[in-house]
Amino acid sequence: MSVFTVYCHGTGFNSHKSLEKDELVGWFHSHTEGVEATLAGSLVTAGSYMINQGPGHGGSGGIVLPQQVNPMTGNMKTNQGTRGGLFNRPRPTFADSARGHTGGQSSFANLKGGLAGEGWDENVLRTVNIIQDLKFEKGQDIDVVNLVGWSRGAVTCIRIAHKLYEVFGNSITCNIFAVDPVAGMDKGETMLDTRVLQSNVGHYVGILSMHERRRSFSPQDWSRMAVDPAVTTAILLPMPGVHSAQVIPGSPVESALVTRNLACAFLTRFGTRLTATPYANLGSPVEMSLAYARLVVSLSEHVNYQTKGLKNRLMGLGLRRREFAKHSKMDAYIRGGKGSYWINEHHRACFAKAFPAGHHCIFESAWQGEADASMVDVALTKALDTFPSLRQSLVSKGLMTGDGPYMLGIGAGRYPNQLRISWPDTLDLHA
To answer: Lowest-pLDDT range, 35-39, 120-124, 386-390, 410-414?
Structure first.
């Protein structure tokens, strides 16, 4: 088995800027073993991974915008079509089309990249072109392609998998870790390859930012995605914070920490070799549960997660819950819906692994009433003694009373399972 990894930057980001900002995609491609596969002068260099620069990235670090590069040759675009036709306009020959010489440099390229995503088509074609060359010219027997992206780069991952299916069918398995996939404008609804996972996608994890300022900034959530659960294991994980909160450590910081460690677990699970583990302190179900407990507390206390004032609401200013994260929609993503203790299904799975007896007592037991935590789960009691955030998170949701002895509310089927899918057993909980 040969594994190839594809990294797709989001709008406004490239390899240079992402490293300056400590952004997730840049962190991973700078910590991937092997060398980068590149394309220039119609020649592909062998490698274990490749990088797609984001549309509209502004050229920081001297990096060229993706739409200015011929995806078939790797050279700057030129229009070599013959003259002819109405008004003597350029008319490309068949050979020109085969070499990608069907359009020259784009005017206002940076603006078009930022607004409309111009350049992501080239990223899709370049990726497939490089993989074909590596397989058939370089002898790399690639049968697994792992893809990681953020924002429009995450949707580019979906589009690449779609194109790989057209070319290779199911002979290449794709695994996608998509962080807040946003296509922009109406492309996440009108373009089939932004929302359909073909049968060559083995696993798909989508991180969805729960909060955002921009009303038109809609992610590829369950209202848009089309997945066949018989062939693809897919799960969508809501995460507190705005669009960038999961890739650049900020507020709440645990969103970025959990996401990056989980992406590492995903990549290594499917064969990508990394040189380091991000936030290795989260390397246990207990530590993951504690990080999520801090997120539960932050959701309860962080006033900036709510739009304040009539003027702000009318103007669309301030942070707000996205459509999928409202009361009527969240039960498709987590047990108990918006009001539950769980941030997402990964949170629930970590808690159940770390404190199995406590999880059963609080959330699954058929009994009612209260129980002394020390009589139920020794590990949970020890954690409650040691970590105030865990105590506060359970108390804030009405699941526990007391500062010691800790009295747990017994479940009585508190959170019925209304989900499309629970946390898959085939995925690791942490790196």
So the answer is: 410-414
